[in-house]
Here is the input.
Amino acid sequence: MHRRTQIRSAIAAALGAVAPVTANRDDPLPADALPCIGLFTPDETAQELTMGSRRQLRRLDLYVDGYVRADGTAGDLDDRLDAMALRIEQAMAAGRRFGGLVDRIELVRTVTDRLTGGELKAGVTRLQFAVTYQTGYGQPDA
Here is the structure.
């Protein structure tokens, strides 16, 4: 199993304490499933560390989307999105190295937005993390 898959699985398990998680960006978002979390890893860079050890240092972009429903009161959606972001950040920090799968995780950016669709009043907070880990050259599963 590719290390990316292992990392997504470990992070999804940790975030499961916050809200139900899907690690597939193509899953539909049912209105009755809010709050929930989606995570995906769209980009990764790699560089060889040293010629002798044939290790690769990889930097993975991890996006964690926290979805919440608004209750209709003024300012409520932003407060709920901030509360979701807080819980996500705490869960990510508590995971530390996720069982040795990662060397470092750092929060890079947070963006919030409203979701509109019919009568659904909801929003999403997207947290972007940079995940650094190492593998053997030609061995992305190790």
Remarks:
- The beta strands are 21-22, 36-48, 55-69, 104-117, 120-136.
- The mean pLDDT is 89.
- The chain has two helices and five strands.
- Helices lie at 3-15, 76-95.
